[in-house]
Amino acid sequence: MEALSTPTLPPGIRSRFIDNINGLRVHVLEAGFEGTGRPCLVLLHGFPELAYSWRKVMLPLAAAGYHVVAPDQRGYGRTTGWDVSYDTDLSSFRVLNLVRDTLGLVSALGRAHVASVIGHDFGSPVAAWCALVRPDVFRSVALMSAPFPGPPTIPIATADASQSGRTVSPARRALDKLPTLNPPRKHYHLYYSTREADGNMRNCPQGIHAFLRAYYHHKSADWKENRPHKLQSWTATELAKLPTYYVMELDKGMAETVAPHMPTKAEITACTWLAEAELSVYATEYARTGFQGGLNWYRTRTSGRFQAEQEVFSGRTIDVPSCFIAGKSDWGVYQAPGAFEHMQEKACTRMVGCQLVDGAGHWVQQEQPEAVRRSLLEFLQTAGQG
């Protein structure tokens, strides 16, 4: 595997590989790597993204004095050492092993700690767990687009209850009732956990490039129907208020779900945050790897197999300085009812603030990179990590 080479990667960002990271050969993008003594920032991408997703903020952060490192995470891009199959052992994709990947990267860089770990989308919970489990290493954390409600809880005061054992969670009950709605629906996490999901997106009739264009457009501020608001509860009827990229029609895959929202040629030309040449980088990488590596992250969540080890941290909070950044048009802020509020009120004890950025949907660091740069630098200064 060669380093990433594309004219759309800004000069000053280098692509290289770091070997022997928890069984991986990790591909990273770096900025501000010249010299020594710079505080380090680790940027963790989400789905369906890559280290490349951070290209617009890396150089500005480096110009502020940081060594900025963005890996292709396990299951993505040019990082190798993970199993591409659906039938792989999912344990390597569980969140605590993803934390181990990040720790290994920090150690390989010769760092005892980093100034901040910054995660977007599914990278946000990984960053959160990094800060929760190893606050000595990850001195602050910025969460983007996906709120972190804290670790799962262990049932309390059940010793003398008339009935013991686990009950079905409100979230699980809501997901199970989605197929009974009219029209019948399903949650995208459950869809992403199916054997068919990778093939549906990878081999879609419109091709990966067009699929990704529609997918990114549908979740961005460019799709004017993205007008997110708080959901009142974990019920099927409330979840059905989410756009179809989150709560899908039961008989459709994601390729069919986003196809009607393909932007026009004029809209594509006007899309300054994701030019066709930039989109081609994503399309080329996913055409080569498929989507299964990233989908396995969702499967570890829906399987329930790894919740017990996370319950070891029940009651623990993130006590390093933290912040939350998302687009004002990002439904990701509210897709899990109560998570946004719980993050601020309980899960993060030193949350500096939450910023919802004008003119951005889900892809906030690409749609509005200057606002994200400004917010991150203000946060790092407040957190004492400047």
Question: Which value, in Å, is the CA radius of gyration?
Answer: 20 Å
- Low-confidence segments, given as residue ranges, are none
Taking the alpha carbons of the first and last residues, their distance comes to 35 Å
Total count of helical runs of at least 4 residues: 16
The profile of the biggest β sheet is: 8 strands, mixed
Q: How many domains make up the coordinates?
A: 2
Percent of residues in β-strands: 5-15%
Tell me the CATH superfamily of the largest domain. Answer: Alpha/Beta hydrolase fold, catalytic domain
Can you write the helix and strand succession as a string?
EEEHEHEHEHEHHHHEHHHHHEHEHH
Helix/strand/pairing category: alpha/beta
**In the CATH classification, which architecture of the largest domain applies?**
3-Layer(aba) Sandwich
Helix fraction by DSSP (H/I, runs of at least 4)? 25-40%
Structure overview:
It is globular, with a radius of gyration of 20 Å. The two termini are 35 Å apart. Strand 1 and strand 2 (24-31) form a beta hairpin. Helix 1 packs across helix 16 and helix 2 crosses helix 3. The strands form 2 sheets. Strands 1-2-4-3-5-6-9-10 form an 8-stranded mixed β-sheet, with helices on both faces. Strands 7-8 form a two-stranded antiparallel ribbon. The protein has 2 domains: 14-153 and 307-382, Rossmann fold; 170-294, no CATH class. It has helices spanning 55-63, 95-108, 123-133, 170-177, 188-192, 197-202, 208-218, 236-239, 254-258, 265-270, 276-289, 292-303, 307-310, 339-347, 364-367, 369-382, and strands at residues 14-21, 24-31, 40-44, 67-71, 116-120, 141-144, 185-187, 247-249, 322-327, 351-357. With 386 residues, the chain is α/β, with parallel strands linked by helices. It contains 16 helices and 10 strands.
